[in-house]
Structures are given as structure tokens and as C-alpha cells.
Hints:
The structure is a homodimer. The first copy, chain A, is α/β, with parallel strands linked by helices.
Amino acid sequence: MSxxxxxxxxxxxxxxxxxxxxxxxxxxxxFDPDPEAERKxxxxxxxxxxxxPMLYEAPMPPRGAIRFVSTIAEAVxxxxxxxxSVPERLDLKLxxxxxxVSHASSEAVIGSSTxxxxxxxxxxxLPDASRIVVAHPFNPVYLLPLIELxxxxxxxxxxxDKAKEILTGIGMYPLHVRAEIDAHIADRFLEAVxxxxxxxxxxxxxxxxxxDNAIRYGFGLRWAQMGLFETYRIxxxxxxxxxxxxxxxxxxxxxxxxxTDVPEFNDDxxxxxxxxxxxxxxxxxxxxxxxxxxxxLVAILHALKGREAAAGKLVLDHDALLRGPLGDGVPLVTxxxxxxxxxxxxxxxxxxxxxxQVFSDASEELMTHVGADRAYIDAGNSYFTAETNIKYxxxxxxxxxxxxxxxxxxxxxxxxxxxxxxxxxxxxxxxxTCDQFLLHVSLETRRSCPxxxxxxxxxxxxxxxxxxxx
Amino acid sequence: MSxxxxxxxxxxxxxxxxxxxxxxxxxxxxFDPDPEAERKxxxxxxxxxxxxPMLYEAPMPPRGAIRFVSTIAEAVxxxxxxxxSVPERLDLKLxxxxxxVSHASSEAVIGSSTxxxxxxxxxxxLPDASRIVVAHPFNPVYLLPLIELxxxxxxxxxxxDKAKEILTGIGMYPLHVRAEIDAHIADRFLEAVxxxxxxxxxxxxxxxxxxDNAIRYGFGLRWAQMGLFETYRIxxxxxxxxxxxxxxxxxxxxxxxxxTDVPEFNDDxxxxxxxxxxxxxxxxxxxxxxxxxxxxLVAILHALKGREAAAGKLVLDHDALLRGPLGDGVPLVTxxxxxxxxxxxxxxxxxxxxxxQVFSDASEELMTHVGADRAYIDAGNSYFTAETNIKYxxxxxxxxxxxxxxxxxxxxxxxxxxxxxxxxxxxxxxxxTCDQFLLHVSLETRRSCPxxxxxxxxxxxxxxxxxxxx
Lengths: 470, 470
């Protein structure tokens, strides 16, 4: 499902929304009075179009255009989704909402990226506030799936349902927040941590870099995959959460929980932190840091996708949504995707092992096509690869798009032989070929056996259509 | 470097220390009066010996034994490192430290796993407290690298240096904390977040599961790789940290930062949280959750290792420490490692693409052996694989140990041909073979060219020794 999105307010957050919508096939209209908005959003889009497609095995939808207009009225006319990401000033936001609701369709969802305001605050004094929700994203918006979706007192339930459907469709995870509070959920944690971090730096306990290391070498790794409570549940052992609470509850009142004042925010503190941060990261440009962050996030999300866990499971599910059935062409196009950054090696190109993975994916697609799908495998049957011969004809680079054409060159009894050609999307050049020989097996005995009848027939049909030897 | 470690207090944390030391080749002596200690540590060790070796490409050192003794005196005699992980009661700890210092070598480092106490508190009233430091780990101790290393007022500088050396040697990251405060650094953040989380659950804003999702689908992913300040530096854009601070500093005093009271910790709150946690995770045993956590952590650490980023960079550096030069045997053993969990596929075994990666790693080791190492590649020369023929002879499962024997079957001019046999460590069965043909290339022109003289000679020498065709 795709549609038209209006982005009110560019910048890093608005640009992230624009990029995600456009890459998921939506037409995007941007309003931002900043003369630099077009340049800024282009920079976000350059990062996004490199990173986001790397998460998917499915082909991405045809990209929507991003267009810039000079009034809110033009931007929101015909929009299915309006996203406001202007600075955190309530008077400014209220003025803009009056403009939005008088020009947007009464069917459009109107989302706010606000980190702090409650949706009911944004709904005040409007003739129709029923479509307004908080849809609070996390930077980089084009990679992180979380959206805190918060309805206000005047929000219609249908607007919430529609918002969930649209957000899921563009690969996000709408977390429906049960009650409105300032700063929703995640930013309350971020604020608590930020306050503690400022004290630690101010008091000379740790530098900005030491604090970053304390997070990313320790609990940050836990939180990327399980969050807080499930992690602590494990710490409680077999006795479960209750035991953990009883063990650690009392330390809530220990002295080290009392440092909850707000440190005075003055020039000295800004100098101290900015100076340490410059020393830590100042040798790299923001563009380099963004690229590094995105590469790391792609690699982590990819890793979790392989585990079918945490945010990786969300990507996996979205991948299935994007994926259509294979056509009936000869040859079959079994894979169409982008090379993710974690597939490259010291030579700066796709590692030879990843070609094997690509051709493995191609044969898995073909298996699904002939009925040897996940259910067939779960029932105890599969094909195992017995031999491959791969010729590496041209280098393949990170972020390059490619596709694989597959022919069945032998399909008789237990034997299945496939011929794959991997080609660059841009010019059709053949990057590699693979002659792959598979045997049908029982997953119980782990020995070869004939396929079930419907699979055998489908394989034979394909083999005949592809002009295979018999 | 390895040695002897004394573990005072088993349980999840002490067991994690015991497992990490033993897997890194240390002899381990455990004292814990709990009659269940041996069973509990065996359970931790079962998880650890599955997960930790998956992080490394280098062969693991020969494993040290874990032995149980009935007195502290027996445990600490001859220990290079004594680690105390008893419950968080100061009187108990002080009693134990008196016992430890009167029996341990004056050269031993004595580390405490305490989350809350300052090292100077632990040093009170002892005849010699100069070797005592806080060495605060994070669960699971066998996977997470962070150690908060905090010296007390009586700690000798040499003890800190020795502690750093030993911790680095077992793959940990000693974060030398500049000043003693209650709860060091990371737990101050954890406590702040925990307090906020209790409020959110108590006030009905979010359930335990929703809070976990708010973390792991959003900022948890950021924190696993960059931590707090570098992430925010990016948010500040080209103007850097100062701009971020100026933009977000004021909201420190907004109303949503005031919720810093400690919620009353009573039965109602315990029931509420334990009930929600049971609903969220109660269908899985602690063992299953631990396995899932460890698999996720291995996959994330692996992904970051490939990026040479964050905690993955630590693993990479430790891997290099563990790795020795290849011998001079015929054939050469080029790879000796464990199958990580993220290498398996829907058939429950190692994916065919990963065989390609293994043989790619084998040829990279051989390249290093003949002088075509990282410096050679950085100077613009390398070998590219042109063709591989892989025969898959037996299934390979996650956590299985294997090695690869490599022969040079052709080494003349630009051409290099290798024959790899991948064998299971347990019984020597051949799992797969690979006939691999490589061409020497210039990384500037990306075309084939002869290798530099020293590499050409080394290749020819090996080819002759391996009885290659000429």
C-alpha cells in the first residue's frame, strides 16, 4: 500500500520521514520555509537510499518523488498522511495545525513528531482535531522502526487504526501508548539518562567517550535485543521477575539513587561537554559519523533478522509484506535486492561467501515456487545443496542492486540442478554464475529421498519449460 | 597469557567469571558455600562454552579446569586473580576480604563484582588493601566486554595496571573509572532508567513488554553501537555538540523531567510488574531466554566485528591476540574455529554461503602466510577469487568445531590454486572440499597482474612443498 505524504518541516526528522515514505513508494510533498530545506533533505535521502534497501531481500517498491512546495495548503492537499516536524514551540505548532486541518482531507492522518507535547495540547482550539495523533519517531527515521503513537482526547479511533496500518506498511512499529504524558515513553528514559550523564561529566567522574563506552560495551548490547524487563527477568533466574524485584527493589532507596537534581545548565557545562565530544569524535565529519552509524545499524538489524529476533523480526515481517510471488518467465527472476554493507570484505567488494548465500537464497525462492516452502520444510522435507561451481566474473560493491535469473537444468526424482546468473541491475552485466546441484532429503533421516508428488510435478514442469536435459 | 583465578561466590555473576576465565585457558578455583553452586556454575558454563567461542575466528586456548574447594584459603592460594561476587552486604564482603588478603599472594589482583559499593569501602580495616579494586562486570559476563575498573584510595597503581592487562587478555574492556562514586557509571544509568520504568508501569502508561519494545526498537539499537554522546553529536548536525546542547539543554527544566521521586516499592507494584512480565515472557523458560539472549548478542557482536565498530572492534582485537602464526605443516591448517549461530539456515545447518566464507577465510590466512597481508592489500595488491567448486559432504551444525587444511595446488605467476578440506574437530570427518582458483590483481586497476617478488617466491615455495603441478 502506498499513497501521498505531506512533510511539514524538513530537517533531520522531517527529512527522515520524507526519505522513508519515498523509498516505500509514496509520493512526498514537502513544506519548509528554510531555503536550505531542499539541500538538507537531499543529504538525508542520500543516506537513506543507501541504507534502507540493504535491510531487505524483497525488491523495493518503485520510489516515489519528493517535491517541494511553498505553502502548507499545497503540501497537504491530497495527502493520506501529514507529518509535522517543526521546532518544539507550542504556539508555532498550533498555528500550523490550524493551517493543516483547514486544507487537508478529512480522511488524512495528521501525525506530529513532537518529543515532548501531548497530543491533546496540539488539538486545542481546532475545528476538527479528530485525525491528529502524536507519531514520535527516532533518528535515523529511515532505519529505526519505533513510532510512539499517542492519540489525544479528540482523536477518532479510526485515525489510530489507519495510522497503524500506514506505519506498518512503511516498515515501522507503531507502539500505541496507553495514556498521554509529557515526553511519552522513550524520551522519559532518554531524559533520565541524559541528566545522569550531565552530572557524571560535570563531576569529573567520566568523559563523554567513557560514558559512550560504558553504554555500548555493556547494557547497550542487551537493550538492542531485549530491552529492560526481559533482561532483568533472566537475571532473576528460574524464580523469575518476582525474585529479581525482591532482590533489587531495596536498592531503589540507596544513596546512589538520590542524584536526581537537574544540573545547572550554563556555559561552563556546555564548554566541558562540547570540548570532550570534539576530542572524542571531532576528527570525523557528521557525514562520516552518520555513515558509520547507519552501517552499524544495518549490520545489527541484519544480524537480528537472521535470528528472527527483536527489531530484526519486524524487518523480516515487512520483507514478507514487500515480497510478491515469482513470475512465470523463463528464466525465473528469483532474487532482486541490494548488497548490504556487512557483505563486503578487505578487498572492498562483496565477499565470495556472500555469492554462495545469494545463490542459496535463489534456490530457496525456487523451492518455495515449486511448493517446497517453509511448511514443507517444517513437515520434514527439504533440498540440500551437494555441489556448487561459482564463477566470479565482475566485482560487486556495497549498495549495488542486482538480480538473479534461475533455470532448472535438471529436475528428475531426488535430483535438482539449477543454473543461476547474477546480474547488475544498472547495466545487466553478469557478475557471477552458479551451477548448483541439490538433492531432495528427509530432514528426519538426513538422507536423500524423492520429493512429495506436488513438488516433483512442479519441478518437472519447470525443467521442461526451461529446456532442461532429462 | 593465562594463569589461575579464584572465584569467591558462584551464582550467575561468579559463574560468568569462572566460565570466561576457563574458556580463555585459566585454571579456576571456586569457593561458594551454596551446595547448589556446582550445578549453577555448570549451567552458566554450558551457555558460555556454546556462545563465547562463536565470536572468534582464532582457535580458543586449551580450556582450563573449574574446581570447587571448601575454603577461601584453598581457593585463593596461588591465584593471580581473585574475584569476589558475593551478595551486596558490606559486612559480609568485609569479612570475606579479611580472609582473602590473609591467604592470597601479595601479587594477586583482588577484584570485586559489586554494583554499588566504592572500593575504598571494601578496603577498610585490612592489613593490606593495595591489591583490591572494583571490577564490575555485566551479565552475561562471558559475552559482554565491559568492566568498570575502579581503584580505591589504598589501591596500588601496579594493581590497576596488572588488572587492565589480565582483563584485556580475557577479552574484556577495562573502563578505568576516574573517581569512586556509589554505583560507578553504568549502574547509575540503569538505576535512573529502572526508576522511570517503575513509574511508567505503576501509572499504567505502558506495560513491561511495551517498555521493552520502546527500548529495543528505538534507542537500544543506537546505544549498542555508539552510546549516548556520539549519537547526540550527530543529531546536532554540522554545528556539532554545542548546537545539540543549545537546542536541547533548555528542556532539562521542562515539567517532564521532574518525575524523579522513587516510587513506593510495595506488594502491589511487585504483583503488577511480575504479572506483566509473566504474560510477556512466562511461556519461555529462563534457559530458553538465556539462549535467545546469547544468540542475539553473538549475532550483534559478530555484525559489529565485521564493521570493526564498537564492541565488535574489541572482539576483533582480542581475536588477533589469540591468533598465532600458521605452522609449516603440509597441509597448512588455515582455519580452526566454531560455527557461530548466525551461520545456520532454515534447514538447521550451516548455510552453503558460509562454506564459501570459510574457504575465503582460509585463502586469506594463506595469503597472510605468503606475505599478501593487510599491509600488502592496503598498498594496492591482492588476490581475487575467480572460481570455486565446493562439494558439501556432511552437514555442519551451530557450535561445532572444525578446521580447514589447505594445499597450494598451483602457484605460478598471477595464478594461485588452492585445495581446501574442511574437517570436523571431533572426529576428523571431511565436511566439505573446495577447489579454489585465484588471480593476483592490482587494486588500482582492478585487473590481474603478477604478485610482488616476495609473495611470488613464497607461493612458489609452498607450491613445491605441497607437490603442486607446475
